[in-house]
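Ticket #4471: structure output looks truncated?

Reporter: J.K.
Steps to reproduce: submitted the chain below (605 residues) through the standard prediction queue, then opened the result file.
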Amino acid sequence: MPKQPINLLLANKFWQNNYLILRELKHFRKIAILAVIFSFLAASFEGVSIGFLLSFLQNLTNPNQLMHTGIAWVDVVLVSDIVPISPIYRISILILLSTWMRAAFNYFAGIYTESAQLNLADRLHKQIFEQLQAMRLSYFTQTRSGELINTITTEIERIKQAFSGAAFVFTRFLTVCVYFIVMFLISWQLSLISVLIFALLAVGLSTLNKRVRETSFGISQANSQFTATAVEFINGIRTIHAFGTQEFERQRFYRASNNQLNAAIKVVLAWTMVKPIAEGIATTVLISLIVISFTTFTLPVASLLTFFFVLVRVIPNIQDVNGTMAFLSTLQGSADKIKEILQTQNKPYLQNGKIKFSGLKRSIDLVSVDFGYTADNLVLNNITLTVERGRTTALVGASGAGKTTLADLIPRFYDPTEGHILVDGIDLQKLDIYSFRQKMAVVSQDTFIFNNSVRENIAYGTSGASEAQIREAARLANALEFIEEMPEGFNTKLGDRGVRLSGGQRQRLAIARALLRDPEILILDEATSALDSVSERLIQESLEKLAVGRTVIAIAHRLSTIAKADKVVVLEQGKIIEQGGYQELLELKGKLWKYHQMQNQTSQP
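Returned output as attached by the reporter:
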């Protein structure tokens, strides 16, 4: 058969295109195998019941003829006198039994198919989560969060639909195969004509399915854009109200929604075309075969009735298969979105080192470090700096000078473009970064609060913390008073991103989280920037106590917060222009002195 190699090639291509998704089936292969077995049994009993139907019709049209089903033990039961029941009633009972058996097998096939579908979605969720956790931060800065959310939610839901559709096609395919076997047993000539016509139909419809598949990529892209726009709207609602940009956001949201609508309409117009065309052609086939059978072939009435009964059942099954195949084509874009995340080539993974970090003994050294978020735009240039153990190193500079970027290199949120970061003489990239971060706490200017209780937010990252330890951390961070004033105290849920808190309260919870962690290395990225002057003083005292015996990298906007730092590093346009003691640099009357003078003038009435 010349078509067989092509079919194998197509199957191989299908496997290659969807391998990253289909490979997850191996984790619940027993469920998938049982679904296949029960589907096969259901299809088999469909054929058995039709065989009994043929015998039933033969008895009705020719009562004097002995019943013959082709199954020896069944024929014995039908003609024996063991049970005083008419053969016509016996065959009727067998038809009912086979029908109910088929229904039972279909039920179990449905259960196992649904179970496999749910397991597949669960596996994909977890695989995507693992992929995202393994990525560098640069991946998230270059990818819209809405697109990732769309992939994890909408696209996986569409993959579930695809799996369900594929299972439906498989069961219908088995049933159609059984139907064709029965048809061939009744009349191979008519069956051969039917197969040839349906094969031509399949070839014609494959062209339509290809067009449907092409439109599927547009709907996936439109879904991603819409979800990204919706997420930005929700996250930025405060800013939208503050700037009065509701009309601008309305137009942006409507534009994204309209794009999604138009893409969906294109898909619907493409795939809904398949079923009516298939239906029209199938009806033409049925009428043609009826004419041919009466004018060309001579078959017993019972055989002819059974043949057309089967053919009438074949046609809607083939229509369903074609329609579902067209629908599956609309989901190819979703499969590609999932594959894009699951594939491992050319991904910005964080390559972890193997040397466990047991604690800082001497220093962290940045040696001739360059860094840029893009290759052609350096943010840091030739940075050489020593952060000594147990001392506080303060980073000072104008906005955009590179302070936060430099601090982000220490926990290896990013790797240097050039140069090295050495921890006690060992390249940071050779250390097990997770053991290194376990000894570290970061309090950034953009504090993230989880939608959990106050207690869970403070204890985040510190397993086994006692109630007393949590309360003490809150007290030291000057957060205990406002926590106890909340409706449920430490059990109060804080809402998405801590919307129930003020900026200063969020910052104090972040500081309490760092205090509870009791880190060796502490990074403070303008940790007191969102506090009032009274809270700032209290927090500063707590941070000074916390800094004793610890290595601290502090980014400061207000110079008063770093006056006791052991070393002050002044950055300008990504370069270190001054470093030394606070008083030492003031006496030089350089850049730090200018900042000092400006802040003193600003603070004067």
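Triage note (M.O.): checked the attachment and the full token line is present. Residues 1-12 have pLDDT under 50 and may be disordered.
Status: closed, working as intended.
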